């Protein structure tokens, strides 16, 4: 996981509907000293006029969609996005205090406080203009031939941590031996969101490409180039990126780890790009002694070598100037920042206005000093009791999966044994890491925002590269504690739930068990199921890429997965664009598996506490079973802009929220029973899908 510092500031613009659901600019916000409380099941978020058997998503989320139009500074708005903003406001209060205080701060508090203060200092940033670009542009201008490119690229990769600079290079676990950390060379070089952005021939894609070229030209003009020169250079960049896109794997192909596993030695790496000196590049980034590499896309590197051979040096300089400017624009004066926003957020994703500075600065502190900021968050917002309650639910969901695997009538005892071994080996990481990251070598200066970003990139890049050839640190996290998200890592074989996602309304200790098990229980089950989705199932208990399935069981699995592919391929994302169900398959399998496991764990909890079961008791007019399903659905309430939906249809492995709810319940006989739906109604599917 690499960080592009200034790009991280920009990505805050596009992080967390009906197209008409847009809101005017929000009133001036203030830092929060405590979290606003939203219940885990919110009756006001429902639409009681909707029939749950016809459109359950509308029934569970209709009120939320009506009452939560998309803020003008967002591409989409969701329950997750709203909680993330609540977390941000809470962190804002912490950071504003630390940025103003000079005394009584620890070393880590000094870093995050000074970083935030420098990011908020717009007057100094404006005064520097495009000044932070000069050292990079001087280096690029001194490039005499492509033979000098390796050393220059090494400098740029360290300072900018950006795969847009031709390719990416970093560390990761060896697919064949998960205990080893080796060097990875990965495809990159693009400015648009996906390789398909360059290749699709529909009118909308062509329009976006034309506007992208215009944006590149506008950026070159800001750099002082004449309009004619800027246009020529923009077209040249577009041609180079299109060539790289054609040589890149699709996102669906990238879901197959075998297509990304190509180990080579130093000679094999050099043979892919004869004119590019890998010894020079590796020596410059401090990795000159490496002898083992995984090249994720060999065909891409061959195409890249051909481009370097046939392009003149002026083309290379033009390309590099663009990508450095693209990366750094959000850290520069407002003219660069605004131009970057106008294309990447407004044009590409439909965002109406720039996020307030505080949001973007909080996001960037979290990106570059996330575990330092996480310590502050955890000490105030994540109690030991909450951690224990989360672990208790996690263990219950794991027990449910153990029983589920044993009950499968399509899986042989041999494969079941391997599956149980893998399940038993999964490590549960809840809340925050056991050991906090050491940022002591990262220098943060109070009045140097762009410099802080660059030094943060270099710190993270060097930290990542230093792992190559070292023993694997299984305690490392890939998300920061305040993050409103969770993940499963197939090579680590662990599930990770940051403290930020274990807050109301997603996990509500004040709420009854039914919606909590529907929501957080379902999410825990979702991450567990990723260990056995179409991608995760290819890794064994130790995290190695290894086929542990019998041929018959693998075929049975693929037939069940095909049912989900066929189901989701029928759903429309926006306009006439359908879900790319081969891209979303892993998440769709995990959604369904998670809901089933959450249900099983909840029923087990109720059986152990019969005084709480009371199956006929109504609360908010809902039975406990109905509350389970509504609680599960309400995490997915969202509104999304059509522009953003088009991008997500290409790039997002998750289905839209509506189908992450309706697409599940049609496969759940328990839902049909809970809401007394009749055969033939839209939420009752004649042929149900189920993998796990």
Count of helical stretches:
28
Number of strands: 11
Q: Which percent bin holds the helix content?
A: 40-55%
Large-scale geometry = globular
Instruction: Calculate the mean pLDDT score and round it.
Output: 94
Query: What's the Cα radius of gyration?
Result: 25 Å
Classify the secondary structure makeup into a structural class: alpha+beta
| Adjacency order of strands in the biggest sheet | 2-3-5-4
Beta fraction:
5-15%
Largest sheet: 4 strands, mixed
Any low-confidence stretches, pLDDT <50, length ≥5? 1-26
Termini gap: 29 Å
Structural features:
alpha+beta; three-stranded mixed sheet; disordered N terminus; 692 residues
Task: Write structural notes for this entry.
It is a single chain. By secondary structure, the protein is of the alpha+beta class. It has helices at 5-11, 56-67, 79-100, 107-120, 122-128, 134-141, 149-160, 196-199, 203-222, 227-246, 266-272, 278-284, 298-310, 313-328, 334-349, 357-368, 370-381, 384-407, 413-425, 449-465, 513-530, 551-568, 585-608, 610-613, 624-634, 642-651, 657-665, 669-674; strands spanning 76-78, 167-174, 177-187, 263-265, 292-295, 427-431, 487-489, 494-498, 572-574, 577-578, 638-640. The strands form four sheets. Strands 2-3-5-4 form a four-stranded mixed sheet. The chain has a three-stranded mixed sheet with strand order 6-8-7, covered by helices on one side. The longest helix is centred in the middle third of the chain and has 24 residues, at 384-407. The chain is globular, with a radius of gyration of 25 Å. It starts with a helix and ends in an 18-residue tail after the last helix. Mean pLDDT is 94; it is low at 1-26. Its cofactor is Zn(2+). Residues 485-691 form the Peptidase M13 C-terminal domain. Residues 1-44 are annotated as: Disordered. Residues 1-26 have a biased composition (Low complexity).
